[in-house]
Amino acid sequence: MTDPESILSIARQVVLDEAHALEKLAESLGDDFTKAVDLILRTKGRVIVSGIGKSGHIGHKIAATLASTGTPAYFVHPAEASHGDLGMVSDDDVVLAISNSGEAPELANLLAFTRRFGIPLIGLSSKSESSLMTQADVHLLIPALGEACGFGMVPSISTTLTLAMGDALAIALMKFRDFRPENFRVFHPGGKLGARLSRVSDLMHSGDAVPLISLQTPMSKALLEISRKGFGVVGVTDADGRLSGIVTDGDLRRHMSGLLDKTAAEVMTRNPTTIAPDALAEEAVAIMNARKITSLFVVDPATPGQTKGLLHIHDCLRVGLG
């Protein structure tokens, strides 16, 4: 039977070894890292990431992170590069080649190609004197600290360091490009992340779908508009089309006596809470939850009072917010 304490002790030691290695990596970063960032910022093309084995797996992730944070990048498998995919690499690109040992033979043709056509080469390795690093223009050197297995056979510390180096590179580039959440959503339209970065304008109802009436509209017609549009609320606008108030279920209950003899102006709640179309939908959800309401009229600050749409809590729930 396995000993739980022994298992946990092993697991904790792996994590501690990798955490220690990450501290060493942070301390080792210097001029070559800034050169790599500057080189990529100046390139007119893409970052071509390549590696074999575990380095290739990490390379896929680095390429994906770069591409999703504003640095055009893609992964080229070194074996496929030798069979035609070198044609995907142009002299406007920069190559990021990854090999912990720096001696992966599968990278040889890609490295030779960069040297032949003067394509900038960034090497990422733990061996400063390796074939990769001696050919590279810029050297991203990770500390050679062995592996967590204790006998240097299972890629663990080295892959963690390589991944962290890639993340550091991508985020440094992102910051210098002034890449913002609104840019991030362009590359992440799906899933929970895409929902969190949605703008109110992405989810709101607009045009004829928005329930609107004038100040002098009889409540009999206001009720029909509430029922027809199905949001449980109607906006009330003045003669210039500016939102003056809203009529909700609560307003109807408070004015039940003689309701049909009144106008919208007599029943409405004045100065309702609104939101701008470029606000994050997540902000709208927070407002609705805090005020215990189910919808917000969308008003553009650039045209004060002019109603652009309506956002209902159900619109947010459908995309995973709330």
TrEMBL record:
Keyword Acetylation belongs to the record: no
GO molecular-function terms, A-Z: isomerase activity
Protein name as it appears in the record: KpsF/GutQ family sugar-phosphate isomerase
SUPFAM superfamilies referenced in this protein's UniProt entry, alphabetically: SIS domain (SSF53697)
Alphabetized PANTHER family for the sequence: ARABINOSE 5-PHOSPHATE ISOMERASE KDSD, PTHR42745
Domain SIS stretches: 36-179
Keywords: CBS domain, Isomerase, Repeat
PROSITE patterns per record: CBS, SIS
InterPro entries reported for this sequence: CBS_dom (IPR000644), CBS_dom_sf (IPR046342), GutQ/KpsF_isomerases (IPR050986), KdsD/KpsF-type (IPR004800), SIS_dom (IPR001347), SIS_dom_sf (IPR046348), SIS_Kpsf (IPR035474)
Any matching Pfam family: CBS
Family: Belongs to the SIS family. GutQ/KpsF subfamily.
Segments forming domain CBS: 204-262, 268-322
Keyword Nucleotidyltransferase included in the entry's annotation: no
Highest taxon in the source lineage: Bacteria
